[in-house]
Amino acid sequence: MGGLWHGVRSSRPLLEVRPDDSAHSLVGRLLGGRFRIDRVLARGGMGTLLGGHDEVRATPVVVKVVGGAKRREVVASERLLREAKLACRVQHPSIVRVLDLGMLETLEPYLVMEQLVGEDVASLMARERSFSLAEVVDVARSIGEALAELHASQIVHRDVKTENVFVLADATLEPRVKLIDFGLAILDDETMTRITGSGHLLGTAEYIAPECVRGERATAASDVYALATTLFEMLAGRAPFAGASMVDVLVRKSREPAPCFSEIARRHAHLDPFFAVALDRDPRKCPSALELVDRFAASF
């Protein structure tokens, strides 16, 4: 049995909520006239996580609430609101469903999402879970199609990685893989500058595309690069570029070509041409998300 997706990704771990925490006052509340809060799950880097159920559809939900008193929480709140708007704007079976967006009387925004039961790929890999070629192709297809839908709406996810690829526990569900977390997605450079401040590089070093390291804006090609990195890691057990620090990874990525896949994985040499193109430092050579899926599936 897998865990629940709590809707928050942060470098800081989720924390247990103390019995005297004010978050418990939300238990029993009815949000949006239909979402009943049942319990407090945890606190994370972007807010409080609550479990509940949809009284209209009789299904479990997860609610994310972000405070807005401090500057960093104001930024987190703005990201949460954008995340909801983006996720609501694009509906796809392989994208986590956002059911509602609202504001508490304390001016704290909340986001209601479908509850996912399973584990993200990063957690599975941490338990030394290996993936079959068929499973990796399934991830490529589901996430590639989700990205294609986002890119058609001029949305760049910006944070495709193993932590944000979620595998549902129920093997009978189709699709079984979902793309989660839209906190770093951007619609335009103005929005990004306003939220992050000038000169900040957002994302996780191993998955950031070389052009973004060079200071260029993230595009659909950046997402495709990150997906290719995710597939590489699932098959090889590690990302293409490694280093003692984030800076080491970024420097290597900006200066060196991607390593030969079969030299790291010690298998699947037939995938070398695929990854050589998919991880090229020139975004102009990058295929679209759907082209990447087709090429990857055709490699077997």
The tally of helices reads 10
Number of strands: 10
What structural category characterises the helix and strand content?
alpha+beta
CATH class of the largest domain: Mainly Alpha
CATH A-level architecture of the largest domain? Orthogonal Bundle
Structure, explained:
The radius of gyration is 19 Å and the shape is elongated. A hairpin with a 2-residue loop joins β3 (35-44) and β4. The protein has 300 residues and is an alpha+beta fold. α3 (133-152) packs antiparallel against α6 (220-236) and α3 runs antiparallel to α10. 35% of the residues lie in helices and 17% in strands.
Summarize the structure.
The chain is α+β, with helices and mostly antiparallel strands.
Would you spell out the secondary-structure blueprint of this structure?
Layout: E1 3-4, E2 30-31, E3 35-44, E4 47-54, E5 59-65, H1 71-89, E6 98-103, E7 109-114, E8 117-120, H2 121-126, H3 133-152, E9 165-168, E10 177-179, H4 189-196, H5 210-213, H6 220-236, H7 246-255, H8 261-265, H9 272-278, H10 289-298
Antiparallel strand pairs: 1-8, 2-3, 3-4, 4-5, 5-7, 6-7, 8-9, 9-10
